[in-house]
Give the backbone structure.
Amino acid sequence: MINEYEELLAGLDDVEWASLSHAYESAHDVPGHIRTLCGSDDEARKGLSRK
């Protein structure tokens, strides 16, 4: 499924995520979460909703 989102995810790694923050901490983990949400692993996506 990730291939379907390649264009959408282009430039994702160009952002300095570690210099940003979200409600819990540094936003360094955001690209991984986005990729997980776009991936084909149902269990991994469900795991994100439990965090």
Summary: The two ends are 23 Å apart (CA to CA). The mean pLDDT is 88. The chain is about 40% helix and 0% strand. Helices lie at 6-9, 30-38, 42-49.
